[in-house]
Amino acid sequence: MRGLCEPHYKRMVNTGDPRPDEPIGVNTASKMRGLSLQQRIDAQTRREGACLVWTGNLNQHGYGRVFDPSTKRQRFAYAVAWEAKNGPIPDGLELDHLCRNRRCIDPDHLEAVTHQENVARARPYRAYPPKTHCKRGHELTPENTYIKKPSGKRRCYTCQRAEWATGRARQREAV
Question: How many CB atoms are closer than 10 A to CB 5?
């Protein structure tokens, strides 16, 4: 995919399509000048299957951004679309993409949830039960579990003691 020149590569990353909609040299920002927020949204979306996909600028995490002329700030396109249909996002809640497509701004694919719920949905591997044994087969009981700092990872105390002993032996040999 890196076989593209820099402008086409950036366009591919931002919009998913390396080809410009217009001839090179036409400034998209100048086209948007004077348009209302809803007109900007309508001009930069297309239907892809069930999703209404944002074709405009994306942030580094892949979420669509749109310039709001009333506040003179960039906003998330999906949040603007949600607010146009449902009103303001309730305090203490954030929007979750049910379709798992970050570029989708379809309000029917969004749900206002708590941060904890959003994180839990984004990381389904956390739903798995915690390990009961270390990779060497030692049982991970509270007495045999060491919490490694600063990461907070659980370690087998038996294996950890063996590592400490190996480290001390190396230090003795080095002296």
Answer: 9
CB 140 within 8 A of CB 134: yes
- Give pLDDT tens digits for 19-60: 665 544 445 566 677 788 888 888 899 999 999 999 988 998
Q: 126-131: long-range contacts (C-beta < 8 A, 24 or more apart)?
A: 130/154
Q: Which residue's entry shows tokens 């995919």?
A: 1
Q: ∠101-38-111 over CA atoms, to 5°? A: 35
In DSSP terms, 113 is beta-bridged to 94
What is the C-alpha to C-alpha distance for residues 39 and 11, in angstroms, rounded to an integer? 22
What is the C-alpha separation between 106 and 97, in angstroms, rounded? Answer: 9
Residues in the chain predicted with pLDDT less than 50, given as ranges, are: 1, 23-26
Amino acid letter for position 132: T
Residue 118 · residue 96 · CB < 8 Å: yes
